[in-house]
Each structure stands twice: as structure tokens, then as C-alpha cells.
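[Q] Does anyone have a clean C-alpha cell version of this?
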Amino acid sequence: MKTGMAIKTTAADKARSNCKKKFLFYFRKGFTTQKYYDWERGYKWEAHVLWMEVLNKKEYKRLLDAGEYLEIANRATRIESKTNLLFSFEKMALRDAVKTADGAKTFAEGLYNFVYGGGRLQKRFEEWVEAVAALPRKQTRVLTWPLVTVFGFIANPAEHIFLKPRVTKIAAEKYAFDFKYTSRPNWDTYSNYLAFAEQVGADVMDLQPKDMIDIQSFLWVMGSDEYPE
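[A] Here you go.
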């Protein structure tokens, strides 16, 4: 008499197993090693730590109440500049967008509501997208996925994840995940991306991911040219 049944391995299971093997090829002990910290996690986590020092909720609210919009924008952009998450043209577009008093005010108020505001994440995200869309544009467009997602990721990597379109689409294909990408930032794509991150987190739980920094780093290893097959 049979005591059990063989579990059928699907194409998706195989794809996800291959992704995990690739990650472990580069980082043999998962997310806990010094090599992983030095290559991927360190600079992202250090940006978060700095954010919590100079733009934590209490300090951000104090600056906001004082009308120090330019100071908020300057602090946020200085923190981001310590990372390589945005392309140089996106960094430049952002700096240009928050140079004016109106641009800095739109940015500062919109970002506070997104990171620290109450209510549903969908509403906060959609309002943040509209705030970014309303920023002054000098040459390059400001409304890109990396720019919309980078500050939430730095400020609160327990909740938010950073989206680099090309790399994420490649990673999703390799992972056999149906990533519903649209080029203009929108809630449907972002919520689908969060579901992707949740799936990855569950699949690599044994590697001890701490937050979205680890999930984003895993996906970066899958889709970036920096990590060839």
C-alpha cells in the first residue's frame, strides 16, 4: 500500500528553484554573509539608517510644520545620492524639480504622506504618484518607476520595495511570475510587484530575508547584468 504520493514539479517550481540556485552561487549562505552585505545590502541599509536619523517621522513633521520644504528635499536627495539606485539623469531631474519653492513643497508634503501618512497604502501610493507627476520638469521626466519607489524603499524597507523596470521584468520572467508591468507608475503594477516580493519572500524564507532590501537584492541578482548566469 502506498503511504504517500509524489509531488509533481511544475515549470514554475523549477524556474524558482533555478533562481534560488543562482543567488546561492553568488551568496552561498544567503542574506547573512559579509559578502552579501558588502555587495548588496550595506549601502541600502546605511541609507535607511541615515534617513531615520535626519528624516524620521518626528523630525520630518517638525520641518514640515516650519515650512522647511527645501531642507526636506535637500536631506532626501542627499541621502539618495549615497546610493546607486537611480540613474544619473533621474538624480539630475529630481534635483531640478525640487529647486523651486513650489517643487520642494509638493515633494515634501507628498512624500511625508506616502511614508508616514495613515490610510490605505493604495491611496497613499496613488497620491504620491500624482505629486511626483506635478513636479516641475526641466529636461528629463521625473515620473519614473525608480524615482517614485526609491524614497519609500529607503525610508521604510519593511513596507516598500524599489522598482527598476528592466531588471525586474527580467527577474520576473526567470522566476515564472506574471509581472503586470505598465510604464507609467500606477497602483496595479506596484501591488502586483508587492505580491511578487511576497512570493519570493516565502520561497526563500530559509535564507532569512529581513525586509524588502533583501528581496529587491535577490531580484537584482536575477535580472542584472552584474550577475551573469
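[Q] Thanks! Anything notable?
[A] The chain has two domains: 13-23+30-41+160-223, 45-155.
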